[in-house]
Amino acid sequence: MPPLLSRSMNAVIVAQFFSAFGDNALLFATLALIKSLLYPEWSQPVLQMGFVAAYIVLAPFVGQVADSFAKGRVMMFANALKLLGALSICVGGNPFLGYALVGVGAAAYSPAKYGILGEITHGDQLVKANGLMEASTIAAILIGSVAGGVLADWNLYLALGACALAYGIALAANLMIPRLKAARPGTSWHPKRMAQGFFSAAITLWRDGDARLSLIGTSLFWGAGVTLRFLLVLWVPLALGITDNATPTLLNAMVAVGIVLGAALAAKLITLNTVRRCLPAGVLIGVAVVFFTLQTNLIGAYGLLVIIGALGGFFIVPLNALLQERGRISVGAGNAIAVQNLGENTAMLLMLGLYSLVVKLGVPVLGIGVGFGVLFALSIVVLWVATARARHSTGGA
């Protein structure tokens, strides 16, 4: 068996780091730009909505793109779109359209970057490869977010230029990936047939018990994750009496640090045959959120968020690996990740919509946090029980 850290794997990890760095730095740099251009405050979330909408609209198509061409070249093309979007913002183009173009690149990039892992690794290396991918992504989120904000304070166009440079480095790293065979060449490119093929793949995956477990679990996790990020903004001044902007950002960083630790632990303790060992961690995420919501001490809050992140990393990495494996066997890894992206981004929009509604209705922040934690824990319990019953009824181990 070839080593995990092959030339291809190293190139994928480097490309992923700089591509994700660019995504996160560009968000904060572009937010600073639209503030300086005096756009209204309500327009700020529209920036992120355009990015997420690209994932949802393009979901029926990007999986086939990833499986119809060499995935390294698809990643290179996607990073070229991101670079183009960043450059258009740099030269004074509409920031919303430029960032939406980056979202198109990100939507095309995602199925290829995860799908390629199953082509350049073998067997239980896939879980370890996912751990490296998640660790690289989280490191990029941490460093990119801070860099985008700090550089924007110094000079807006220096920040935007740094984002474009990051995408350029990612594109160059993609050139280091040896050309691989297309997983499923020769598929029809008629839009209607592509959409039919996508939804057929979605149905196929949904009927597969393991794939269904992964799709539901990862969608719940990322929907909850983006909601927790916004909850922190309201929770910090109420629970801790701190009104600055830095504290919520640092608390979010603690979750990211924990995810890296949990991802590393999952790579050591879980294989594709023992994926269900991650489900108790999902239940404990909800329990930890409840305890966190009731915290009034900053140090305790930091510690609990590291724990929540570690449980999250332990939960999400094996589920990603499971979906890639089941997708590779049935509908193609690219199609599987595209279906997953649709589920995750739809969950984000729905959970944020529910969160906005309860805030508007005047539900206390502490009540929202406790209810959120309880509902998440119960959701994972229901998923766990349903999965166990399905495996029992089919004679699974």
UniProtKB/TrEMBL annotation:
Chain segments annotated as transmembrane? 12-34, 46-66, 86-110, 157-177, 213-238, 250-271, 278-295, 301-323, 335-355, 361-386
Please tell me whether the keyword Cytoplasm is annotated for this protein: no
Q: Which InterPro entries match?
A: MFS, MFS_trans_sf
Q: Does the keyword Transport apply?
A: yes
Note the SUPFAM superfamilies from the entry.
MFS general substrate transporter
Q: How does it sit in the membrane?
A: Multi-pass membrane protein
Key words, A-Z: Cell membrane, Membrane, Transmembrane, Transmembrane helix, Transport
Cellular compartments annotated: Cell membrane
What is the protein named?
Lysophospholipid transporter LplT
Gene this chain is encoded by:
lplT
